[in-house]
Sequence to fold (153 residues):
Amino acid sequence: MKCRVIWMGKTRDPWIKDGVAEYAGRIGRYLPLAIDELKDEKDAEAEEGRRREGERLLKQVASQAVLVALDERGEQLDSRRFAAYIGKHRDSGTPELIFAIGGAYGFSSEVRSRAAKVLSLSSMTFTHQMVRPFLLEQIYRACTILNNEPYHH
Fold:
């Protein structure tokens, strides 16, 4: 199974870039990983921004791919349940599992409808930049859980 993470906008802060690189490298030992940064909408009204970003995102999602949209109003899973979710897709032959981090406007209704799951990393609010290494760390943690490795305790 290929794992892909798509987010809106460039990663700006050096410490976030470092965290993304660190965990992307770790994940790569377990799963093929691709990270795509799509253009974000800075000057549009909220509804128009969601629509444009959603169109760009959905063009990146193949029909057989499983899309997980990260949203603060989504379902919260602990790390073991998140690992089980990834493991279920890995073991069932899902060709591509895509995690999407929306832009400042969130996701359009079309993206939310296409998503197999809407997931929240926390009930706390984080910047869209900070969520990037947090998500990658959790994917890495899930890989170690699935492989019975001691990283998670």
User: Anything to note?
Assistant: Residues 128-146 form the longest helix (19 residues). The mean pLDDT is 95.
